[in-house]
Amino acid sequence: MLAGIALKVGIDIIDWGFLKRAHQVSWKAAVIMYGVIALTVFLDLMVAVGIGIFIANILTIDRLSTLQSKSVIAITDADDQIQLSEEEKRLLEQGMGRILLFHLSGPMIFGVAKAISREQKAMKYCEALILDLSDVPHMGVTSSLTIENAIEEAIEQGCNIFIVGAAGQTKRRLEKLGIWARIAPDHRLADRTEALRQCVVSLDQCVTLS
Residues 18, 100: one domain? Predict the structure, then answer.
């Protein structure tokens, strides 16, 4: 009798209208939902809920990583992808492709590391690197290690490295990894324009000396 009552209550609380239209909203969500229902019926409720939550979290992290990777941008000249002032555009043009502006924004979760690695290839052809972290409120361990690797490669190549706008948790993470200490104090700046000015001056000096 109790089983019959439970079955009746279960059927009544199901939103049949949504079940019919779930695949139109998101086929991934629909697959998870139908899978949880099947596991609940044929296996165990707790197991079904656990698996459903785990898969849903993995998919959410993947979507966030994909969206966040678009905020990793490396440019060597004026680019509409980053909002630059007229002076910044002029300074980048003066760099003639020798200055790489590496702009990051938003939380740097582990999935962003792949995007950073992709853009890292552009560092091989630059003489000065500006790492702009002004819009980064949080930096995860994996992304921090990827940035550390990028900076080490740039140092080995003889690149002038500038870090802009690192503050709060982002700065503390760089300090713990030893990255902060490897950058000259006068190359740790709060203003991107000033970093570009210093880059242009240092490159001009190199040309003069050569």
Answer: no
